[in-house]
Design a protein that fits this description.
Length: 430
Amino acid sequence: MRLGPNDARGQGDRRQEKASAVATSVKVHGEAASRSTVAGTTMTNVTHLECSACATHHAAGQLHNLCTVCGKPLLVRYDLARASRSLTRDSLKSRRADMWRYREVMPVENDANIVSLGEGWTPLLHARRLGAAVGMTELMIKDESLNPTQSFKARGMSAAVSMALELGARKLAAPSAGNAGGALAAYAAAAGIEAHIFMPRDTPRANVVECEQTGAHVTLIDGLITDCGKEIARRKDAEGWFDVSTLKEPYRVEGKKTLGYELAEQLGWRLPQVIVYPTGGGTGLVGMWKAFSEMEAMGWIGPERPRMISVQAAGCAPIVRAFEAGATHADEFPNAATVASGLRVPKAIGDFLILDALRASGGAAVAVSDEELLAAVGEIGRREGLFVAPEGAACLPAIRKLLERGEIERDEQVVLFNTGAGIKYIEAMR
Ligand SMILES: Cc1ncc(COP(=O)(O)O)c(C=O)c1O
Ligand SMILES: [Zn+2]
């Protein structure tokens, strides 16, 4: 079952909407390339950026990385009362079928700068057969593999590249476990700007090839994503690169937060009871948590929140360790290793934000072995017909563990996030 903007709306209509969103994006790109001559619409309700740790305000309308006072991530703040005058739950019924439908709570000033390839508005599937196999009635899968470049990273990069274009950055750099690189390469190409991508040498080959084929400058590093980040930090000033590392620039979260808006909309303006999310840098989790606050401030939802569950691989589980130790920050995880390359993030700059959301929601953090998550790829495939990324598959053994521990009830509505496509990881499937 697919839940659309109106439940009655069928798949044919959805495809049509996607097609018209693509047509719009072609027009948008044309305008972006010559935007000085195009009078675009001004629509942002951004008031300022706020440090997530020390609350210092930073001016909107200029490029930012981390807070200049304390070095922590910045979050975008909006005049939500103003946004909600035109962005109403009703108004959404006739909007474009991508993440830019939430236009008033997106950071771009001028429509002409939106770089879109049709990201977002992905299916929310009722996984009946998989649910029955684990003894659950309301297991849902949010299938993010249907995004451009086949992962949820498209949302963050669409927002970040649009803002980079608007604020004048022309050379972007990011470390990537794979999927973020592919998304950055694609959106930079669509914007006509440079992408410099640093990936661990053992990143799945599909990710490397797609970056090359979409025109990015790719450097493979003997090390982890954190080493890739260090290399960018070392070279960026001399090279004139703007660093779009996750949570080190404020707009990828704005793209990812649309996951939260979309989930509420697809469920008829309710939130599920549990969200199970594979966590590396945690941008999606932090983004959804932010979306819930924004929606509550606009009067769309109440104060109830889903229990947020972070899933990590046992070979790289810094958040799980910190959660279990009761710590507010996570130490770097030594000798990080897992086939779920997106989860091989030994140290996340937003660690305290992830841990806050897990605790405030009454959630948990769960580690699963590579053996368990690889077996889950095949099980989800056989039972639901979805060839999911190992990161998304990791949610299944995590759900089983939580059922056993009595932390999830069998009749609760639980959303499993499939963040990417299994086809990119064929080396790992033996
Ligand atoms: C398929 C997939 N899932 C999950 C993640 C982790 O995402 P996040 O950094 O938002 O925690 C990644 C990151 O690379 C990924 O590629
Ligand atoms: Zn600060």
